[in-house]
Amino acid sequence: MTPTVHRVAPKGRGAHRSITAALRAASDGDEIRIAPGEYVELLVLDRAVRLLPEDGSAAHSVRVLAAAPGRPVLEVTAPGVHVGGIALTGQDPGLPAVLAAAGSLELSLCEISGGRVEAGGDASLTLTDCRISGAQLAAVHVNTTGTARLTRVVVEDIDGTGVVIGSTASAEADALTARRVTGSGIRVRGRARAILRECRISGPGRSGLLVEDDASVTAQECRLTETGAEGVRVLGSSQRPVGGVVLQDCEVLRAGADAVAVSGTGDVLLLNCRLRAGSGPGATAEDESRAELVNCQVDRPGGSGLVARGSARLAAEGTSVTGSRANGLLAGGGSRVKLAASDVGDCAFSAVHACDDSRVTLTSCRIGETPEHGVRATDRAELTVEGGRITDCGLSGLQIDTAAEARVRGLSVVRGRTGINAESTGTVVLEECDITDAERAGISCGTESAAVLRDCRINGTGTAGLVVGERATPSIEGCTVRDTAGSGMVVGPEAEPRVRAVTVARSGKNSLFVGEKARGTFEDCVFAGAGNAGPAFPAVHVSAAAAPVLRGCLIRDTEEDVALEKGARAVFDDCLARDVKNPALPTGPASALPSASAGPGADTGTSARETEAPTEDTLDDLLAELGGLAGLDRVKHDVSSLVKLMRTVRRREEMGLAPPPLSRHLVFAGNPGTGKTTVARLYGRILAAVGLLERGHLVEADRSALVGEYVGHTGPKTSRVFQQARGGVLFIDEAYSLTQYAGTNDFGQEAIATLVKLMEDHRDDVVVIVAGYPKEMEVFVRSNPGLASRFNRTLVFEDYSTAELVSILEHQAAQHQYELTPPAREALSAHFDATPKARGFGNGRAARQLFQAMTERQAYRVAELSDSTESDLMTLKPEDLP
């Protein structure tokens, strides 16, 4: 049926004199065409009609003014209503000028003033190419259970909020413009859902985007500029969590406070966003909120670039923070922060500052260009650093003080006043760190600290390479200090470090300076090329009343090896001096000359670890313990067969019969975490129970325990480890590393030759087990005929199945009084099924590490419960799985 067209005109035949009259005459689907002019009416649209200008003009030649105050000029209660090209003016700016109480209303090319556009009940609202101005409280208020769509809408000169979306509305806004509003640009609350695309919000008196309660928002390619308060403010309800906010390819420019602020239980994800030149921080998360930034830029914030407080969770990946007027990252309270592959620099304060009880993890980050510290952890903060680079800091590259804890691996620190300054009384572990060109010390362990340093490298520093503060007791192993302008290692008064396998080369002053009353042990160290600044600096200087012990150390290429002040009580045990122009070996009752019979390179300590075998275990107990291990069916079968063979050998010996030819040495081939060390320990105890070994203890060794650093050092080291294993099992992990290094300065082959001879000379006293990856172990055994003849039996340790990994984790849980729910077991199975089992997968170690991670996450979860029960404390659930 063709719709009827009704004309409205002030005069003329065949036309209604008012729009209201035309509406009374119209039916559903009819069209009302209105002549240019001004109409004072109250329009109630209770049927599906279309209101359009007669001439089709979009210049608002038709103007409709409200006929009475307190009433909307246009009210809709029917579906399918369309109004286009008309100017609508209300009489009260604080009330609706257009109201969709029910049904659906579409406004296109309209101009609304003197009041807001409002949709309530279950009404749906569509605005296209419209302009709303001169309203109070809000320009557009969508408080409906229906839908709303705003396309190319302009909201301006509003004494209040630009657009409010509430209730359970589902709204979309494309190319929305909000300017000159005294409140927030867009406010989304209740349980509303909003999608914003290419919206532009400029100069609001408050926040650009405000999200509250259980609302959720997705904003794409939006731009918020010169906001009076936060650019984006997300406030989750304390009673129920916020639905979540996602900002993608958005820009927040010159915000009056935080560019993005999330609090309560808010949840925000920023993807490829730019936060620039605001008056406050770039992004702040506080209370119990969560914020994540991926591939974002935070540029020139007025406060810190990223801030986490309370119990907030903050994460950033591929994100840059530059030019902040405070910290690049500030983490306080009990917050948890993770930064990965991100850049933080050009900050007025420390680039990263972790304080209170916060936990901060930095992975492969680049940090620098700050007048203060690159990274500082203080109070009771916990810092974890994996890889990354810190450059050009006015103070320390990494500062750890008060009672903070830090675990740092693979960090590179370049230039700056001090490389790493560990002054904390908490646990500090530094592994495989590189410090280069520090103005003062490379690494400094502060007063009474007890840091652990492993395999760190310090190059080209100023006053000192490695400093041990007064009364400090650090453990330092495998580190190198090279080309320092001052002393290589300085030990402060009354300090007592434990130093092993440290190399100090080409220091300007002493290689090692030991302060007054200091003690400590220095084993297998090399001090080379000391005194570049002048002959007055011997390699080792021991101050008055100091009593260090140097064992198995080498001093070479220097004017003078040792200088002892009066009252020094240093002990030199099996140390060696080479190419020293003016040797000055210590004499007197408090010091000892190296033993002439010890030979060069002899030392009394090793890096091998010994595990004593319990004496009370019977063979049946040990076999039961072996059988109780998860998986390893093939290994268990092989060991059981060996036990039967060994018992037969033992019976023949007891009867005076000659034993058959038998090699007890084994190759354990398998990936990490498959139980090789555990089985080796059991194997020794089993052999002791059978009577084929005297003690059955296990001595674990690797390349560093066997191979020396200079000619004549390797043989004694290997012999010493072998002697330590007499009566038990010598377990050499990654044994192929003895053959993987080439060159004239490598002594791995010497260690193998020494080992082969000792195995022949003491064939009944020691069982040697070599272990490592399967392919590498095949190459290792074939590399030497003596090895091939002595290691003719290989036990293959296969990777654990998913069920076995779950069993290992359940065993760990039972040992520590935890229980897994059935859903947690299913989640674990799914987790291990999805985990790649490539080379390097941790197997049982991975299961144990996962259990630890689950207990930590469970602790965080239970801590948030107001009244936790014993069951809560013992139960692990799927949500505890990382």
Question: Can you put this structure into words, describing what you see?
Answer:
Helix 10 crosses helix 12. Strand 1, helix 1 (19-25) and strand 2 (31-34) form a beta-alpha-beta unit. It is built from 13 helices and 79 strands. The chain has a 46-stranded parallel sheet that branches. It has a 25-stranded parallel sheet, covered by helices on one side. Strands 72-74-75-76-73-77 form a six-stranded mixed sheet, sandwiched between helices.
Number of helices: 13
Secondary-structure content class: alpha/beta
Mean pLDDT rating: 89
Please state the CA-atom Rg, rounded to the nearest Å. Answer: 39 Å
> What proportion of the residues is helical, as a percent range?
10-25%
Low-confidence blocks of residues? 587-606
> Could you give the count of β-strands?
79
Large-scale geometry: elongated
Beta fraction:
35-45%
Largest beta sheet, briefly? 46 strands, parallel
N/C terminus separation: 63 Å
Features:
elongated; 46-stranded parallel sheet; 25-stranded parallel sheet; 882 residues; alpha/beta; 13 helices; 79 strands
Summarize the structure.
The chain has 882 residues and is α/β, with parallel strands linked by helices.
Write the layout of secondary structure elements.
Layout: E1 5-8, H1 19-25, E2 31-34, E3 37-41, E4 43-45, E5 50-53, E6 62-66, E7 74-76, E8 81-84, E9 86-89, E10 96-100, E11 104-108, E12 111-113, E13 116-121, E14 124-128, E15 131-133, E16 136-144, E17 147-151, E18 154-165, E19 170-174, E20 177-181, E21 186-188, E22 193-197, E23 200-202, E24 209-213, E25 216-220, E26 223-225, E27 232-236, E28 244-248, E29 251-253, E30 260-263, E31 267-271, E32 274-276, E33 283-285, E34 290-294, E35 297-299, E36 306-308, E37 313-317, E38 320-322, E39 329-331, E40 336-340, E41 343-345, E42 352-354, E43 359-363, E44 366-370, E45 375-377, E46 382-386, E47 389-393, E48 396-400, E49 405-409, E50 412-414, E51 418-422, E52 428-431, E53 434-436, E54 441-445, E55 452-454, E56 457-459, E57 464-468, E58 475-477, E59 480-482, E60 487-491, E61 498-500, E62 503-505, E63 512-514, E64 521-523, E65 526-528, E66 540-542, E67 549-551, E68 554-560, E69 562-564, E70 571-573, E71 576-582, E72 609-611, H2 619-627, H3 633-654, E73 666-670, H4 676-690, E74 698-701, H5 703-706, H6 714-724, ...
Parallel strand pairs: 1-2, 2-5, 3-6, 4-7, 5-8, 6-9, 7-10, 8-11, 9-12, 10-13, 11-14, 12-15, 13-16, 14-17, 15-18, 16-18, 17-19, 18-20, 18-21, 19-22, 20-23, 21-24, 22-25, 23-26, 24-27, 25-28, 26-29, 27-30, 28-31, 29-32, 30-33, 31-34, 32-35, 33-36, 34-37, 35-38, 36-39, 37-40, 38-41, 39-42, ...
Antiparallel strand pairs: 72-74
Helix pairs in contact: 2-4, 3-4, 6-7, 10-11, 10-12
